[in-house]
Amino acid sequence: xxxxxxxxxxxxxxxxxxxxxxxxxxxxxxxxxxxxxxxxxxxxxxxxxxxxxxxxxxxxxxxxxxxxxxxxxxxxxxxxxxxxxxxxxxxxxxxxxxxxxxxxxxxxxxxxxxxxxxxxxxxxxxxxxxxxxxxxxxxxxxxxxxxxxxxxxxxxxxxxxxxxxxxxxxxxxxxxxxxxxxxxxxxxxxxxxxxxxxxxxxxxxxxxxxxxxxxxxxxxxxxxxxxxxxxxxxxxxxxxxxxxxxxxxxxxxxxxxxxxxxxxxxxxxxxxxxxxxxxxxxxxx
Length: 285
Hints:
Elements: H1 15-33, E1 40-41, E2 46-47, H2 54-62, H3 65-76, H4 80-87, H5 103-115, E3 120-121, H6 122-156, E4 162-164, E5 170-174, E6 181-187, H7 193-210, E7 215-221, H8 230-238, E8 247-250, H9 254-263, E9 274-276, E10 279-281
Parallel strand pairs: 6-7, 7-8
Antiparallel strand pairs: 1-2, 2-3, 4-5, 5-6, 9-10
Helix pairs in contact: 1-6, 3-6, 7-8
């Protein structure tokens, strides 16, 4: 089966996603077919991962790291956070552009080789990669769109709301300098609720340390047909908070946050520039 024959349920919504997927699959296919005979049986199209040593696996990834890092990461089924937690390998996808035989590359090789089966049919490998990356990218793209929708909602109501990356990354900070409120935005469904709840819990702990005086808000977008289970979902997310309480809201509850802002005395508009010894210092977001 060729990539063009794979199911494409969202081709009308995300045509560029599938064009990129086709290109990646073709590159992965070419890299694997270029393996020596003892590692790839061309007649049966079987990849023999169990026969690879670390040098051979490293060479395979190095042949096209932009494609191969994604492929192996998605076939193994671990998220960025799981790679960080299990193998101390932070931001695994940055290896796509920084594959140079350093410490992180060694961690990647050892972790992936420990997760792969001894052998795998090429078609199974390619199709698994295709569908896993398709789902990841759909969620990622929709998530980014919803993040911007949330920020635009607060901007339209007079609040200075931006995504910031220091001292940690948060999807929205109000204001962006010395935030009084920070929020993380996620999209998901009931079946991955536990995973999303753990993510919110982890992000809350980081935010509590980085912004000890700020309120934390978890914004969770779920399918409309699951909104009738919001109480159950909210409770599951809140079970993973530690110490302080935080607010969990859904996509149709953003107006409720405005009421909270009034209670918390969170000001509208841009933060005022700092003044020191009579010299105005411009705030940098």
